[in-house]
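Handover notes (outgoing to incoming on-call)

Open items:
1. Putative ABC transport system permease protein: sequence verified, structure written out, both below. Nothing else pending on this one.
2. Nothing else urgent.
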Amino acid sequence: MFLGIRDLRFARGRFALMAVVIFLITLLVVLLSGLAAGLGNQSIAAVKNLGADHMAFSRPASGDKISYTASTATPAEQKKLAGRPGVDDAALIGVAMTKADHTSVSAFGVDPGGFAAPDGVHGRSIVVDADLAADQGWSDGDRVAINGTKFTVAGTKDDSYFNHQSVIWMDRSAWTKLPSAAGADGTVVALRTSGSFDAGAASATSGMDVVGHKDAVNAVGSYTSENGSLTLMQVILMAVSALVVGAFFTIWTIQRSGDLAVLKAMGAATKYLLKDALGQALLVLVIGGGLGALFAGGLGLLAAQVVPFIVTPMTTLVPLAVVVVLGMLGASAALHRISTVDPLTALGATR
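Putative ABC transport system permease protein structure tokens:
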């Protein structure tokens, strides 16, 4: 990388500008990645953390998709699914929007003692999301009004969100009395299954749509649209990164054709020049992208105090790696010009 390092020192301004561009693109990609993860978590955390690997929804009308807002389930359907081969446990869960002390929440009705019910849920005792309890100043033993009825806070549950609302876990017998429950016994049946479970056969015999964990998560209305939009933004930024890096190194290669011609005339192998060019591009990408990811991680930790933002290796290092890989693919666009430089033609053009 002798020539690459020399170029970096000689044209500091141009390479610094390129590194800043990579820094900004990586910063945006990582911030979007952390925001997408945070928003997604606030849509599906309660469903994701249920401990169920399958979910049964009432069969939607032709052309419609399964949805928590449109689904209903009954104890009879729960019992039928519980008797299916491979089903280890089945829990009837009700999901509805309501207000707790004038705060909008998602109410999850569960049967006490079931695998989906947090400890403390029974009768008029409820378990509330830990962040909601902190915001409202609720603690164990406090009384909270839900639909005009007083319930006692029996505990809190971390990371309990559904559709961007904090979740309150309550006895299903109390949940059925909520106006938003519309008289239903429940919304879905959550299943814990073993390897012998056949979702297709269960759907056929129960009259419900039994789906895996991924489809159950995608049935949350806000999750798919938000995640799709933010992912599209990330893809566009990464594509821009590849194009910008490719254009920069292509132009840079044209500008230094004379240097490349001299090196070839002196006997430098094309393979050496290609490795030198790729090493130079990798160095710029790692410096600019690494600083961008580091800065975005720091901003994300601060932003997480006020907005849903998650900082993990998946939301920082993975986007950085993708930006670097796509940048290298863009830089490889300049390789053809390097490999086809004619020493005699290039040297003659510099006279």
